[in-house]
Design brief:
mainly alpha, about 90% helix, about 90 residues
Length: about 90
């Protein structure tokens, strides 16, 4: 029974860590790239951002914040699951 709990904790932790990786890559990483691209467009224009660009920046920022928080929760759960497993 103890071995099953160890494997279960490590397996759950590994699944959560993998989910955190993919969420970080697709949710956080891609939104950062979109934000940098939008910033480059604004800088190339040489003027303040248009209202459309400002709204787009706000939406990307909101998405980035949401994905970052979910990623942090997944990582904390993964660490907790893995740390409860005994070797």
């Amino acid at each position: 029974m103890a071995r099953l709990l160890v494997r279960g904790g490590l397996t759950i932790g590994a699944v959560l860590a993998s989910a955190a990786f993919f969420l970080g890559y697709f949710g956080v990483g891609r939104n950062v790239e979109r934000l940098v691209d939008l910033g480059d467009q604004i800088a190339a224009a040489g003027q303040p951002p248009s209202p459309e660009q400002g709204a787009q920046m706000a939406k990307i920022g909101t998405d980035l914040e949401r994905h970052s928080k979910m990623d942090l929760v997944l990582l904390l759960l993964a660490v907790a699951a893995m740390s409860t497993a005994r070797f």
